[in-house]
Design a protein that fits this description.
alpha/beta; Rossmann fold; DNA polymerase, domain 1; 6-stranded parallel β-sheet; 48% helix; binds magnesium ion
Length: 230
């Protein structure tokens, strides 16, 4: 491989979305006294939230709802399961969620070690489907900003991964050739098939060792393995 540019996904690839989100939701459960509203446990609340959040994220990814709708509605539908129909409270929790969660700093094991190693050899960039105002905060709070030359968010480009346009935009912005670029991401559709379709090589980060029957050239379950590949 004659690689010069590495494009990283952010959420669930470097930034440990699940841990950071869990921490945020637990704090919100306490902050908004949700147990007083009849919710027996934070775990239960979070389990229900995750189902709604995932479903709404799918709709957001398909441009069927806006990010403003996604923000409040995932909490509205969760509260509704407990018999609480409160748009104003849902909106408040939704706003707090997007304010607090990007301040969390949990990264996947070896993130900083590997980025320090790669930084000496490659130009690195981020391509993310996350929100513009949120992703920059995450990067700076978790000490990642300085590693990346260009931060490309779907919100800024106007299309989300796996749309080929976001990859073309990123290549153009980084002044990178596709055959000297590689993308590392955790999402088979958005990252791996997206990059493949754009002619960019890919490394599938699969920390939970999800079983699949796709034919993937490079697959890792720990970021430290990047040192052997790159
Ligand atoms: Mg991801």
């Amino acid at each position: 491989m004659n690689i010069k540019h590495i494009f990283f996904d952010l959420d669930r690839t470097l930034w440990d979305f699940e841990s950071n989100s869990l921490q945020t939701l637990t704090e919100l459960f306490n902050q908004f006294n949700l147990s007083n509203l009849g919710m027996n446990s934070a775990e239960n609340f979070i389990r229900k939230y995750k189902i709604h959040n995932e479903r709404l994220w799918d709709l957001y990814r398909e441009d069927k709802i806006s990010k403003e709708e996604l923000r409040g509605k995932r909490f509205y539908l969760t509260l509704k399961e407990y018999g609480i129909e409160d748009e104003s409270l849902s909106e408040k929790i939704g706003l707090e969620y997007v304010r607090i969660s990007p301040l969390k700093k949990r990264l996947f094991p070896y993130t900083l070690d590997v980025l320090n190693y790669l930084n000496k050899k490659y130009e690195m960039h981020i391509i993310t489907n996350g929100f513009e105002e949120v992703q920059h905060v995450k990067l700076s709070q978790s000490g990642l900003s300085s590693f990346f030359k260009h931060i490309i968010t779907s919100e800024k480009v106007g299309v989300k991964k796996p749309n080929i346009k976001i990859f073309e935009y990123a290549l153009n912005k980084a002044k990178a050739q596709k055959d000297e670029s590689i993308l590392i991401g955790d999402d088979l559709i958005a990252d791996i098939f997206g990059a493949k379709n754009a002619g960019i090589q890919q490394i599938y980060f699969n920390p939970n060792k999800i079983i699949h029957d796709e034919n993937i050239e490079f697959e890792i379950n720990c970021l430290s393995q990047l040192k052997e590949l790159l």
